[in-house]
Amino acid sequence: MVTLKGEHIFLRALEPEDLEFIFEIENDENLWELSNTQTPYSRYLIKQYLENAHKDIYEVKQLRLVISDYNNQTLGLIDLFNFDFKNKRAGLGILIKSEHDRYQGYGKEALKLLINYSFGQLHLHQLFCNISEENHTSLQLFKGQGFVEIGLKQDWNFDGASFKNEYLLQLINK
């Protein structure tokens, strides 16, 4: 049985109470490069998003889960996106919001849980992620879980001052 509970954290569905947490993440300009965001989100739009977050991954092609510790502290978000049922693949992204909570193993544990869920419950064949060439921490995290670099997209993202390369990584369920 696949579980979304780990030793130190668990993954849960979005709740209306997550509005402020998501509002802060979506409007933090320091994080926009990670999500290719270019404009702020209103609380109204995020509220509407949360009202529809219950929809099935097969319908909306996305699954966003909250990373929480067992004290019910919200630590971050982990996403499956571009869910492609026909080809049995999805993109995967993760964010631990507070720098204080990073490097504590939460991201690694969340990633393991979602990989196991994706392969065991959703029966996906492969997962992929896109990571900036400069994001050594994320590259190390994903490679540590078996993801392999399969390509470098040159000058892929513009950060307002210069173009940045981005790696495409892939994990195939053997």
From TrEMBL:
InterPro entries: Acyl_CoA_acyltransferase, GNAT_dom. Residues 9-170 form the N-acetyltransferase domain. GO terms for molecular function: acyltransferase activity, transferring groups other than amino-acyl groups. Keywords: Transferase. The keyword ATP-binding does not apply. Pfam families: Acetyltransf_3. The keyword Metal-binding does not apply. This is GNAT family N-acetyltransferase. It comes from Hanstruepera neustonica. The lineage of its organism: Bacteria, Pseudomonadati, Bacteroidota, Flavobacteriia, Flavobacteriales.
